[in-house]
Amino acid sequence: MNKKIPLKSIIDSVSNEKGISREIIFNAIKEAILFATKKKYKMLEVETQVDQETGIYKTYALYTVIDEIKISNPFKNITLIQAQKYNPDIKIGDTIKKEIDSIHFGRIDAQLARNIINKRVKNAEKELNLKDFNDNKLISGIVKKIIDDEIIIAINNDIYGSIKKSDLIPNESFKIGDKIKACIIKTNKNNQEFKLSRISNDMLSELLKLEIPEIKSESLEIKDIVREPGIKAKVSIKSNITNIDPIGACIGMKGKRIQNISNELYGEKIDIINWDQNLFKYIINIFFPIEIKKIEIDEKIRLINISVQKENLSKIIGKHGQNIKLITKLIKWNLNINEYLK
What we know:
single chain; alpha+beta; N Utilization Substance Protein A, Chain:P, domain 4; CATH 2.40.50.140; five-stranded mixed sheet; five-stranded mixed barrel; elongated; transcription antitermination; cytoplasm; S1_domain; transcription termination
């Protein structure tokens, strides 16, 4: 009455190929066997039991014990008198099992079972993929749709993200079929929804980790990032290993590393700054190569007065005051820039 399938070889094969736990595959196979069994025994309540070690599966018809002499549904009910022939201690309302012939998988049943298993495996693959999608993670995808002010991006295995045009770098545009990188800023794994951005600081941080192995290995550490997306960014980098120069490592041979990142960010100019715990040294590093003639720090009101040569004032301030705004955000102190007078 029982049947046998090469369960272990099936589970091992699918698990090794898809990287999915054996338990998930085993449960999918059990579900497929039960589905095919119910298809055959349409009138009965059935249950299947599968031995994971041997691959042997048994099938039982389930009957509810009722207190009637004559039953109206012999496919689902059994009288107390009849049930007590199998088990003297059985009571009204209990369920009694009778082993019946297990199904043999014909071509159609085998295909139905295969479809169920494939569906469960696909869902498990998606769950596995979703574990990798967390806030601040950099993703790559393809533009699938553009709806009003939102772009829908296909990421991986039926996983999609969306990015508002306000979260794109100013003046950049994408069309359907374009490749795009973006950073996850909000996840809803239940609904498999991912909100993306290209203007967050994390976008630049993740690109730095991707392009610069010393940052990924934590030999170099990103201490702070400030951005004017698509225009300019400043990144403070600390070296955790004395013989690694943060600026040289980040810029790369012939500036290739930092240029690759800049190209991804629509030409955004990226300044790499050698972070220092000493505020005076850090200020000098931030303004390099401009020479600072004098630094005065008022800790009570968190004000830094900086004096430079007259010809350097416009360089420090930058176009539309952009450079000094980023420097102020980076230092997190109020700044007062003055012409140096002897």
